[in-house]
Design a protein that fits this description.
13% strand; 61 residues; 2 strands; 3 helices; 56% helix
Length: 61
């Protein structure tokens, strides 16, 4: 029960990581050069908190 409670607290706790660290981590998750380029454009445009689900859907992280 205690581990379940800790998991829920970790799930809903806000990240205190600076924006630069989050952007670096997001760019590091790219799988190839084309994905990296797309992610770099998203970060530059300020839309790095959006991602696509399925063929056409856009949802918030």
């Amino acid at each position: 029960m205690n581990s379940l409670l800790k998991s829920l607290v970790n799930l809903f706790s806000a990240s205190a990581a600076p924006a630069q660290d989050r952007d670096d981590r997001y760019l590091a998750e790219s799988v190839d050069i084309y994905d990296l380029e797309r992610r770099m454009k998203q970060v530059d445009a300020g839309h790095h908190n959006l991602y696509a689900i399925g063929a056409y859907g856009i949802f918030m992280r």
